[in-house]
Amino acid sequence: MSDLTVHPASSRRRPLHPEITEELIEVLVRAFYARVRADGVLGPIFERVIGEDWEPHLAKMFAFWSSVTRMTGRYKGKPMVAHLRLKQVRPEHFEHWLALFRETARDVCPAEVAELFIDRAERIAESLQLGMFYRVGMPVDEFRKA
User: How far apart are the first and last CA of the chain?
Assistant: First the structure.
């Protein structure tokens, strides 16, 4: 006998909010990365990695945020692996990134939707920071000082 359990469609994961559309994701991602590119701290870091052609990166981010907020499964990447390669990124860059993301989300999204995006961004940033900077024996609340 198989251990495979089939769940009805009604039990599948649903989008976080009905107002989160693919169009809104694209508006948010494009607005956010326009601010990143113009930012004196983050812009040079991203420019070194992405170069002049941002469309492939933006397409990945559309798929990523679609998967995170709409549960589409479009994103097939490995964000931890990608971020571990970024040796110039430091813990303080994450808070700066989050500040720009919070500001952008609140500018372009309805309030309730903005807070959902921000919540997910904060969780993802914490996970990436733990993976990149936490070391065994280091108190978890102190890892950002690494």
Answer: 51
120: which 2 tokens? 């997910």
Q: Span 17-73+87-135: which CATH code?
A: 1.10.490.10
Q: Any idea where the domains of the chain sit in the sequence? A: 17-73+87-135
Q: What is the DSSP letter of 88?
A: T
C-alpha span between 92 and 72 (Å, rounded)? 31
What's the residue count for the chain? 146
72: tokens are: 């589409």
**Tokens encoding 85:** 């390669």
- Considering Cα of 131, then 134, then 135, then 140, what sign does the dihedral take? negative
- pTM for the predicted model, two decimal places: 0.83
SS3 1: coil
Q: Which tokens in the block code for residue 5? A: 């359990």
Q: Write the pLDDT tens digit of every residue in 37-85.
A: 999 999 999 999 999 999 999 999 999 999 999 999 999 988 766 766 7
